[in-house]
């Protein structure tokens, strides 16, 4: 059954254009009189049915970028972009905002923030359907049950009457997913959808997301800090460090041949964790918004740093289908074995 919000779905089969393109997305937060850049010039292109991951450590600006796309920034946040193209047509920021909640939906990092503790989960799903679809009351009842079944909540009919605290963390996240799917979106933005869940439940949620993406031919922007998750769930990845895109490309290429020292560090860290259960983070820490260094923003932590790196802020340069922002990427690549 369709949610009855068909206008955007009709053109989904047109594969000649990416579903959504954003050029040079910028996000800043005001702090007193200062405007602090959280994301600089992030460009994204998402095809129909594709998963694009935004990856990086905590504080790199992933949620800021994702929230900008759905106009969900905190009150002191603002965003802008040079160009927004939806299904091949240039649209304004206001037009993008009108897609929010219908063609584009958002799944928050923390399910407890998305669920109202005093409403049953059934009522919460039906509320989304009421505001974002044209379904009748009777159709909303049917659709709410269908959504609970779609996200594999056992005994869905009776569980519609339950409150969020009666569900485990993993089940709560499935309900948040049901709410995000309710308007039948063409693009789901999933911000670290498995934060706080154990690895088994995490794997179940990602398997479910992959199945739903296939069944619904939906695109996903997946925000993640774990490269293991990205490897199995995404087609393309954008690596973000301190608000700047340092590398992007297909997940296959990034894993086979990472070019940027930060991507290499993240991959090494993921290998150590998954293979040996050892957390071996990149030395140093990501700078806060007020501490961003001049030159290459990664230079205080980079083993490849030279004096030039302290003054040159490298552009994202195309390289064999990937893009990388590092002035020494050739030396770095030559010294890094392909995996
Ligand atoms: N409302 C705000 N005001 C000021 N600074 C903010 C605000 N929200 C986020 N920041 C800062 O912006 C930077 C990026 O934050 P963001 O939440 O986007 O990172 P993230 O990559 O999603 O991190 P995490 O993995 O921890 O969720 C951080 O330095 C953060 O402290
Ligand atoms: S530009 Fe310099 S500091 Fe930045 S990642 Fe490349 S080698 Fe490291
Ligand atoms: Mg975040």
Give the topology.
Blueprint: E1 20-31, E2 34-46, E3 51-55, H1 62-69, E4 77-80, E5 83-86, E6 89-90, H2 93-99, E7 104-107, H3 111-114, H4 121-132, H5 137-150, H6 156-159, H7 169-181, E8 187-191, H8 199-216, E9 219-224, H9 227-233, E10 236-241, E11 244-250, H10 251-256, H11 261-276, E12 317-319, E13 322-324, H12 329-335
Parallel strand pairs: 3-9, 3-10, 7-8, 8-9
Antiparallel strand pairs: 1-2, 1-4, 1-5, 5-6, 10-11, 11-13, 12-13
Helix pairs in contact: 4-5, 4-7, 5-7
Magnesium ion binds next to helix 1.
Please characterize this protein's 3D structure.
It contains twelve helices and 13 strands. It has about 350 residues and is of the alpha/beta class. It has two domains: about 5-240, 3-Layer(aba) Sandwich (Rossmann fold); about 260-339, no CATH class. The strands form two sheets. It has an eight-stranded mixed beta sheet, sandwiched between helices. Strands 1, 2, 4, 5 and 6 form a five-stranded antiparallel beta sheet that branches. Strand 12 (about 315-320) and strand 13 form a beta hairpin. Helix 5 crosses helix 7. It starts with 19 loop residues before the first strand and ends with a helix. Mean pLDDT is about 90; it is low at about 1-15. The structure holds adenosine-5'-triphosphate, iron/sulfur cluster and magnesium ion. Adenosine-5'-triphosphate binds near residues 59, 62, 63 and 76.
Question: Key terms for this structure?
Answer:
single chain; 339 residues; alpha/beta; Rossmann fold; five-stranded antiparallel β-sheet; 34% helix; disordered N terminus; binds adenosine-5'-triphosphate; binds iron/sulfur cluster; binds magnesium ion
């Amino acid at each position: 059954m369709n949610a009855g919000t068909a206008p955007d779905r009709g053109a989904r089969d047109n594969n000649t254009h990416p579903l959504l393109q954003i050029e040079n997305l910028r996000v800043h937060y005001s702090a007193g009189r200062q405007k602090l850049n959280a994301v600089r010039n992030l460009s994204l292109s998402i095809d129909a049915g594709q998963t694009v991951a935004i990856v990086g450590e905590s504080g790199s600006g992933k949620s800021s970028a994702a929230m900008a796309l759905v106009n969900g920034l905190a009150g002191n946040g603002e965003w802008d972009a040079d160009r927004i193209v939806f299904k091949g047509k240039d649209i304004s920021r206001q037009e993008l905002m009108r897609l929010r909640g219908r063609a584009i939906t958002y799944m928050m990092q923390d399910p407890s923030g998305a669920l109202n503790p005093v409403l049953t989960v059934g009522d919460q799903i039906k509320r989304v359907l009421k505001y974002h679809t044209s379904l009748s009351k009777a159709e909303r009842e049917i659709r709410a049950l269908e959504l609970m079944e779609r996200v594999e909540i056992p005994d869905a009919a009776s569980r519609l009457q339950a409150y969020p605290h009666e569900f485990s963390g993993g089940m709560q996240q499935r309900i948040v997913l049901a709410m995000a799917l309710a308007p039948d979106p063409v693009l789901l933005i999933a911000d670290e959808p498995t934060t706080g869940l154990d690895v088994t439940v995490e794997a179940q949620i990602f398997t479910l997301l992959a199945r739903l993406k296939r069944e619904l031919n939906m695109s996903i922007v997946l925000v993640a800090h774990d490269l293991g998750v990205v490897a199995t769930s995404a087609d393309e990845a954008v690596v973000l460090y301190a608000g700047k895109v340092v590398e992007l490309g297909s997940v296959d290429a990034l894993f086979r041949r990472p070019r940027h020292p930060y991507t290499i560090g993240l991959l090494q860290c993921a290998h150590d964790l998954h293979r040996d259960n050892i957390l071996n983070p990149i030395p140093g820490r990501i700078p806060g918004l007020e501490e961003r260094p001049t030159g290459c923003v990664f230079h205080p932590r980079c083993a490849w740093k030279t004096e030039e790196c302290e003054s040159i802020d490298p552009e994202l340069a195309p390289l064999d289908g990937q893009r990388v922002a590092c002035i020494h990427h050739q030396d770095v690549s030559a010294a890094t074995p392909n995996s």
